[in-house]
Write a structure and sequence with these properties.
Elements: H1 6-21, H2 36-51, E1 58-65, H3 67-80, E2 86-91, E3 94-102, H4 105-116, E4 123-125
Antiparallel strand pairs: 1-3, 1-4, 2-3
Protein name: Sporulation protein
Organism: Flavobacterium hydrophilum
Domain SPOR: 52-129
Length: 129
Amino acid sequence: MRILTPSKQILLSLSMFALTCNINAQDQNITLNQDPKFEQILNDKRKINTSISTNETYRIQIFSGKSEEAKKTLSSFKKEFNPIDGTIIFNTPNYKVLVGNFKTRIEAERNLAEIKKKYTSVFLVKPSK
């Protein structure tokens, strides 16, 4: 390792200090020019997406009854069947616990067989089209 003389050391320190003082972050304003057709296409896409039904999946109903019991049922279900999602839906006069989001009937029936081992009154809910 080479040892610098005091004058070179001072010169090097001053030049490093001068360089660090001139460093600036990105402080320029950016303007984005967008084609007006882009907004129109985006709005058309939003209209199409709202018309597509998102309820095209099979679900399994595991409970129908009072609110507190539905919450307890959903909680115990999530502990035992962690990867399967579930939700509570109010349908007068009962709260229903629906689980799963299965794309095919075969997949839903496989899970139905497993869930039937723990919950007795379960059945498959078909997607409404």
